[in-house]
């Protein structure tokens, strides 16, 4: 299974989702469902990608879709840490250059995604 949901202080500050393994097209539907289910139960979703071993454009699309859905409900989506490693590489391959230290998904994609 490529993803796991961990609720951390869900009643207080946020819900955290830890994703692991390869986040590519074959598992995209499952990852999308996991992220949206977690988002439905909180005001702020934090996604931990530290154990991701592979990511492609389908995962980036999932992040954008989650952020757009969150914005419609006055919620936020953030990464647990600034994108680096596999996720940073996927962003650069797709033409994104997130601001240094950015964790907000909206901020990471701000230069290319119309809201």
Total number of β-strand segments? 4
**Largest β-sheet summary:** 4 strands, mixed
Radius of gyration: 13 Å
Mean pLDDT, all residues:
87
Alpha-carbon distance between the termini? 32 Å
Task: Count up the helices.
Answer: 4
Q: What share of the residues lie within helices? A: 25-40%
Largest sheet: spatial strand order: 1-2-3-4
Protein structure class: alpha/beta
Shape call? globular
Task: Indicate the proportion of strand residues.
Answer: 25-35%
Model regions low in confidence, pLDDT < 50 over at least 5 residues:
5-9
Order of helices and strands: EEHEHEHH
Care to describe what's here?
With 115 residues, this protein is α/β, with parallel strands linked by helices. 37% of the residues lie in helices and 25% in strands. Strands 1-2-3-4 form a four-stranded mixed beta sheet. Helix 1 packs parallel to helix 2. The protein is globular. About 4% of the residues have low confidence.
Summarize it:
With 115 residues, the protein is of the alpha/beta class. It is built from 4 helices and 4 strands; from the N terminus they run E-E-H-E-H-E-H-H. Helix 2 links the parallel strand 3 (44-55) and strand 4 (76-79).
Keywords:
115 residues, alpha/beta, four-stranded mixed beta sheet, 4 helices, 25% strand, globular
What does the secondary structure layout of this molecule look like, with pairings?
Layout: E1 3-6, E2 15-23, H1 28-40, E3 44-55, H2 57-72, E4 76-79, H3 85-93, H4 105-108
Parallel strand pairs: 2-3, 3-4
Antiparallel strand pairs: 1-2
Helix pairs in contact: 1-2
């Amino acid at each position: 299974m490529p993803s796991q949901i961990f609720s951390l202080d869900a009643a207080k500050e946020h819900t955290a989702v830890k994703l692991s393994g390869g986040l590519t097209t074959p598992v995209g539907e499952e990852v999308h469902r996991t992220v949206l289910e977690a988002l439905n139960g909180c005001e702020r979703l934090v996604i931990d990608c530290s154990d991701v071993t592979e990511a492609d454009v389908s995962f980036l699309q999932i992040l954008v879709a989650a952020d757009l859905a969150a914005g419609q409900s006055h919620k936020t989506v953030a990464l647990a840490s600034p994108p680096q490693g596999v996720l940073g590489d996927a962003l650069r391959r797709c033409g994104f250059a997130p601001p240094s230290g950015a964790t907000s998904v909206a901020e990471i994609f701000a230069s290319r995604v119309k809201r």
